[in-house]
Amino acid sequence: MLTSIYLIAITAEAMSGALAAGRRNMDLFGVAVIAFFTALGGGTVRDILLGNFPVTWTQHPRYIYTTITAGLVTVLLARFMRHLNQLFLVLDAIGLVAFTVIGCNVALRLGYDTVVVVMAGITTGIFGGIIRDIMCNRTPQVLCHELYASVSLVVAILYLLLVHEGVSENITLLAAFSVGLLMRMVAIRWRVSLPVFSYSQASWE
């Protein structure tokens, strides 16, 4: 089940990358590159940091085909995307939770300490979006808008607690997805975010 969710997640993230590239007027090659790194960048960074080689997508070429195809198809569907905005937000939230859980799983399998497992989950969940925004020359949205990275943190902690307590995999996944989706949807609906730190040297002199 998690594999199917993962495929949906990377497709949604690739589409978000393609749209970001379109806002920067990139050519089709740029669209494909941004789509690829948005969808698979988080897992790539995680694998490098954890020493988990070979990097996951190098062993599963279908992930490459899926993300690049999704990015290019988005070019054709761009005019209709505003009508699919709500669905897209839900798919993006599903992707965040799925990536976080998968990241935690990888680190657990490698025998890392709890704090490393949590950070591996967060890295997998948010780093694709960070890479997308950096490549599109804008401040990473996942760190300054509605709750996003913090949702990944909560999901990672909840997932580890349930795993530690020996709860069945299906219930653990259901709980993680339910809490993650609820938090993300509430954050979007009511624009819930963490307090912002705004530093201006002049104001402190």
UniProtKB/TrEMBL annotation:
TM regions (residue ranges): 30-51, 63-81, 87-108, 115-135, 147-164, 171-190
Membrane topology note: Multi-pass membrane protein
InterPro entries recorded: Gly_transporter (IPR005115)
Domain Glycine transporter: from-to ranges: 6-78, 90-163
One term under GO cellular component: plasma membrane
Keyword Metal-binding recorded: no
Record keywords: Cell membrane, Membrane, Transmembrane, Transmembrane helix
Subcellular locations according to the entry: Cell membrane
Domain of life: Bacteria
Family of the protein in this entry: Belongs to the UPF0126 family.
UniProt-recorded name of the protein: Glycine transporter domain-containing protein
Organism annotation: Marinobacter litoralis
Lineage of source species: Bacteria, Pseudomonadati, Pseudomonadota, Gammaproteobacteria, Pseudomonadales
